[in-house]
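Hi support team,

I'm filing this because I wasn't sure whether my run with zinc ion finished correctly. The job status page said complete, but I'd like someone to confirm that the output block is well-formed before I use it downstream. Pasting the exact inputs I used:
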Amino acid sequence: MRYLVLTDIHANLEALDACLADASARAFDRVLVLGDIVGYGADPDAVIDRVRALKPAAIVRGNHDKVASGLEWAEGFNSVARSAAHWTLDTVTPAHRAWLVALPEGPAVVGDLIEICHGSPFDEDAYIFSEPDAARAFECSRRPLCLFGHTHHPMTFVLSDNVLDRLERSTDSESQIPIEPGAKYLLNPGSVGQPRDGDPRAAYAIVDEDRRRVELYRLPYAVDVAQAKIIQAGLPEVLAQRLGLGR
Ligand code: ZN
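And here is everything the job wrote out:
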């Protein structure tokens, strides 16, 4: 079984379509979505249609999905994120809003190997950036491979023989991480629609269950088109700029 892993799409249709085309060429059987489907980008309705059509085997909500559907207030959000969330709330169709509201809270277990969450397995809104964050997450994770998003930074932590390590991040367009027997992994594939690691290329992963490995991909997409749509929609201009910087 090959699982396509998508996280932090953030209503960026151009990035999502580029990832789907690339992933289709590499073949996958099922789809896992780790939340933040909307918020920031200009195409929430089209992106929700795409995600629904994929019939994800597992999906969890992100903090932006909660705020952009009216489920939660934008209290913890900065002014740009808040204004994008309000724009999204005003824009999405009632049916899509209801779909966002109904998205389940993570974590969710997928078979014997994988668990998915938005922020962390102990709190959907918590960020995993550091080794201490990862140590706490490992205590709660219930499968060898816990996939997370939320930070928009590709990142992998490994717990093996009680030693916690952070794996060095590859900047290649393709890289692989083997899932060694007996070890536990926390892995963020990076954001589809708003990368923040200084690399504007869209990020996604495929987990190959039989080969016990994670394939990480980065690919260019039509950033200029996504930027123009953001400006045209009247969303904060900084949201267009950051796509070009990958920040
Ligand atoms: Zn996000």
